[in-house]
């Protein structure tokens, strides 16, 4: 059950999309590998968050070609791409298979019973919002100011995506599992209580991931819509032909991969 991750994946009409919100790695493996990790419960390749980001950005890149625009719902593609670029920056959307990205790690956030995934999806941000009198627009403005004043030298690297690449979700997934290993799972074992120590040391990472997600989404949309370079119609199978001979790793066969 990984579909406690997002509201959209709960809704009946969108259940098909629930594996597209995350990609998990074998337990305690702090690296990410597209061929090994990107699949759904039925072992269908490319059905994970990074595959979905490739897929929807490829769909959007056809926007000038009526042959494809009849085939795709580009509004839906834009909404999904925006959502999934956000998801992949939440470290536990690239967590471990065995604990379902922190969903099965039951613990307390201050006095409230929750799970580690929900702490990172929602509760850290809710706690941070108290500083802004629960005014989300103030928090967004504060992060925007940090992008301009605290991280201006980092922004070009966040925006860049490799030569001729429109979108680079594999980097973001690799960053997420690395953060998950270093900061997210640490001191957050089942039954623990997370409070000020955890909040104040992790909140800076959350702010930075929100900033990176926003900057990268904007850069990706610029490349798709005004980049001016000829966007190739690339679906994941074309980008990763080598995956077909690779071992898929899921909860049942973790020891084999
Ligand atoms: Zn999601």
Quick recap:
Its EC number is 3.1.30.1. This protein is mostly helical and 257 residues long.
Topology:
Blueprint: H1 7-10, H2 34-37, H3 49-60, H4 66-69, H5 74-89, E1 106-109, E2 112-115, H6 116-129, H7 136-149, H8 155-159, H9 169-184, E3 193-194, H10 196-225, H11 236-239
Helix pairs in contact: 3-5, 5-10, 6-10, 7-10
The chain binds zinc ion.
Residues 5-6, 21, 83, 87 line the site of zinc ion (ZN).
Structural overview:
The protein has 257 residues and is mainly alpha-helical. The protein has a single domain, classed as P1 Nuclease (Orthogonal Bundle), CATH 1.10.575. It is 48% helix and 4% strand. It has a three-stranded mixed sheet. It is globular. 36% of the residues are buried. The structure holds zinc ion.
Kindly report the spatial arrangement of strands forming the biggest sheet.
2-1-3
SSE run: HHHHHEEHHHHEHH
**Full CATH superfamily name:** P1 Nuclease
Radius of gyration: 18 Å
Biggest sheet layout: 3 strands, mixed
Please write the CATH class name: Mainly Alpha
- Structural category is mainly alpha
For the record, the count of structural domains works out to: 1
Give the overall form: globular
Quote the CATH topology. P1 Nuclease
Q: End-to-end distance, in Å?
A: 22 Å
What's the count of strands? 3
Cofactors, ions and other ligands in the entry:
zinc ion
Overall pLDDT metric: 90
Helix count from the secondary structure assignment: 11
Approximately what portion of the residues adopt beta-strand conformation? under 5%
Q: Under the CATH scheme, which architecture would be assigned?
A: Orthogonal Bundle
């Amino acid at each position: 059950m990984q579909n406690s991750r997002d509201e959209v994946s709960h809704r009946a009409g969108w259940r098909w999309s629930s594996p597209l919100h995350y990609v998990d790695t074998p337990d305690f493996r702090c690296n990410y590998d597209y061929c090994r990790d990107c699949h759904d419960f039925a072992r269908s390749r490319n059905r994970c968050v990074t595959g979905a980001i490739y897929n929807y950005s490829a769909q959007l890149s056809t926007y000038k070609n009526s042959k494809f625009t009849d085939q795709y719902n580009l509004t839906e593609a834009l909404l999904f791409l925006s959502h999934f670029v956000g998801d992949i920056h939440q470290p536990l959307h690239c967590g471990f298979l065995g604990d379902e990205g922190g969903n099965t790690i039951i613990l307390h956030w201050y006095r409230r019973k929750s799970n580690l995934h929900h702490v990172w999806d929602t509760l850290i941000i809710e706690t941070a919002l108290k500083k802004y009198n629960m005014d989300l627009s103030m928090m967004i403005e504060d992060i925007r100011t940090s992008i301009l004043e605290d991280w201006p030298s980092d922004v070009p690297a966040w925006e860049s995506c490799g030569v001729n690449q429109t979108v680079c979700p594999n980097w973001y997934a690799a960053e997420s599992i690395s953060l998950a290993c270093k900061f997210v799972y640490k001191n957050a074992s089942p039954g623990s209580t997370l409070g000020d120590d955890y909040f104040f040391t992790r909140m800076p990472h959350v702010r930075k991931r929100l900033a990176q997600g926003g900057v990268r989404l904007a850069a990706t949309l610029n490349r798709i819509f005004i980049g001016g370079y000829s966007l190739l119609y690339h679906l994941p199978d074309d980008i990763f032909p080598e995956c077909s001979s690779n071992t898929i790793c899921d909860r049942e066969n973790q020891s084999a991969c």
